[in-house]
Amino acid sequence: MRNNPMKQLLLAVTGMSPQVITETLYALHHQHGQWPDELCLITTAKGHDRVWQGLISDGHLQALAQQLGRPDITLTEEQILVVPNTAGVPVDDARSLQDHEALADFITQTVRSRTADPELAIHASIAGGRKTMTFYLGYAMSLFGRPQDQLSHVLVSEAYEGRPDFYYPTAHAKPLARRPGDVTALDASQAQVTLADIPFVRQRTQINDLLQSGESEGLSYRQLTRLINLGDSPHNIRLDIDEAQASLRLLDASRNEQVLQLSLSHNLLRYAFYLMIVDATHEQENDLTRPNGQTKEEQQKEQALLGKQLLLRLYRLLQHPHSLRLDTIHRESCEALATRLLEDDYYLPLLNKQLPVKTLESLQKHQGLTSGQFDNHLDRLKRQFTTRLPANLCHALIPAPIAGNGHDHITEGKHQKKAGYQLRLTPDQIRYTHQENSQ
């Protein structure tokens, strides 16, 4: 009986040799591995036909289970996944660059989806398919694999390897057809089949939060690997601030290309909060601190100053086209600035769509930005980044308290009384692609 209560899945890539499936199952049995409850095969259109013919029509899958005294494994059309190209058409034989891009994305998303089930243990086989298919499966397992998952390759006696008439060592003598150069006919029962376990580095913790986001399903294999590699080379990060689109663009300076664009347009107040910290980083200012006054008066003064700074940054972002002048509103209080946003008809279409009314009312009521509001903005920003980016890249882009001047003394505590908040980037890594118009 099986000691492991998890459901077992054999996930494999196959090409024109479906024999790797029965060979793997045979080796699993004889090496006391977990017998799978389910199969999932990734292949091409040509591979699908070969798999169905050999395993189902010719009955080799059922015959193996009977020989070994194991439960039958059902293999349906839905469990044979044919890779689609960018137009959604099944890939025929994966010989073009576009087909290989499609293979990479499809395999990555399949492994990502299957590893999202904590009650499922995956045994991934890279014994079949083209070399690129096996590489993508192996790397996807490295990205998403968990402790209960494993990776393997099956080894077969050289004379039997790749023969279309050999599926597994039979219990009784079974001569195979002679091929050119064979002195005598081979006996299927004499073949040696061994399962080689492949140790692999599990990097799931690097992208754990990313896995839990539905948005991440749209990330291609190429994007995902570029994001991870960019996080490993933080000096190559370039952050473009596009205020017109309320977005952040991540670029890889070593390739001079955009890797990903993140939109923060759904909450312009939070975007303005982030821009405040970007500005502080760009100008190398270390005075943007969390409200933490010793007395009530000091606390209120800090809240008022920070709240006004936030709303002024928001006004610069919104660019009121009429009579409002930025040099005029600099003289207004945080409460007055919040009131104007809530009552000016110009901003009415943005309220609750891009400008949260409750947050503005809180700024108005408290006449500033409280420490709780400050923390809330930080936490929400962190959540947005960690659900879209690998952990190593988040480290550079999430605001953090910086002790002293410069980036040499990054504090690890959640709050530092005199630590100014910045990004872990240098000024030359930040570029504004849209500058505010003077009014």
Describe the protein's architecture and organization.
The protein is of the alpha/beta class and 439 residues long. It has helices at residues 19-30, 45-57, 60-68, 97-114, 131-144, 208-211, 221-232, 268-282, 296-318, 326-329, 334-343, 357-366, 371-386, 391-397, and strands spanning 7-13, 38-43, 80-82, 120-125, 150-156, 193-197, 237-242, 247-252, 257-263, 400-402, 420-422, 430-432. The strands form three sheets. It has a six-stranded mixed beta sheet with strand order 3-2-1-4-5-6. Strand 7 (237-242) and strand 8 (247-252) form a beta hairpin. Mean pLDDT is 87; it is low at 405-415 and 435-439.
Write the layout of secondary structure elements.
Elements: E1 7-13, H1 19-30, E2 38-43, H2 45-57, H3 60-68, E3 80-82, H4 97-114, E4 120-125, H5 131-144, E5 150-156, E6 193-197, H6 208-211, H7 221-232, E7 237-242, E8 247-252, E9 257-263, H8 268-282, H9 296-318, H10 326-329, H11 334-343, H12 357-366, H13 371-386, H14 391-397, E10 400-402, E11 420-422, E12 430-432
Parallel strand pairs: 1-2, 1-4, 2-3, 4-5, 7-12
Antiparallel strand pairs: 5-6, 7-8, 8-9, 10-11
Helix pairs in contact: 1-3, 4-5, 7-14, 8-9, 9-11, 11-12
